[in-house]
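It is worth pausing here to work through a concrete case rather than discussing structure prediction in the abstract. The textbook approach is simple: state the sequence, then state the predicted structure, then interpret. We follow exactly that order.
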Amino acid sequence: MLFKKILLATDFSQCAEQLWNCAGELRELGAKELVAVHVAPLTGGRLSDHAKEKLDQHLAELKDLGFGVRSLVRTGPAAQEIRDVAEEEDVDLVLLGAKGENRIREFFLGSTARDLIRICDKPVLVEKFKMLEDEQECAAVCTRKFRRVLLPLDFSEDSLRIYELVRDKLAPWVDEAVLAHIVDQGSSKKVVEKMKNEAQDRLAALRLNLADAGVETEIRIRTGIPSKYLAQIAEEDAVTLVMMPTRGAGNVTELLLGSTAENVARHSSRPVLLFPVKK
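Step two, the predicted structure:
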């Protein structure tokens, strides 16, 4: 299966504790091993011992689900340490939560998640949260992560590779997919219309292939800044997960604005699964 070994990174914050609830779904998708890591501010001492105890408490419960489990406590810059553990353990997926909330109780990307996206060579699933009605507790935005997925497609090799993963491996767990393409608004109206028509034809062909795999599919085409409209589509279509590469075809404008993947992960209210570009 695609994700056999999972690395779960937690700082023990209220929302990060919700990440453990993802384990059952990942087990159904074929996950067999789970490594839990906490990056502590100090080396050794009671804080590290306490962190190890908390990790082991959670992992004891996961054993009942059939996981092989292991806990680690590291010290140093959080993103770098998580990246290093992901490499050392050769995991198939890194799971962590978005962190931080503003005045209107919306959760955005924390510095650890942002930095990890930039440096990690493993797929990273950034979980998003919502406040419950009493605004005292948070919960994961979606369960059944792969039920309705958004696939941004710029027709680069890496975006098509993710599409193929859904078609060839994840289709049994995916009920619906939204195929999205954002056209550069910097061209003339005539060129924009031509690009939209070409994108429509290419997406329609991809849609048929997903239909053959048993996945219902919708198409969305917008004109403008990719990260802005992808986050908007994710919300409007109530997707359960956005799946995209860390870099796409791109252009100079997008480089100046920052990476599309990072901005989608930052601003989307929906969980985002980012795949490293193929080397």
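Step three, interpretation. Residues 102-106, 251-257 have pLDDT under 50 and may be disordered. The longest strand covers residues 33-40.
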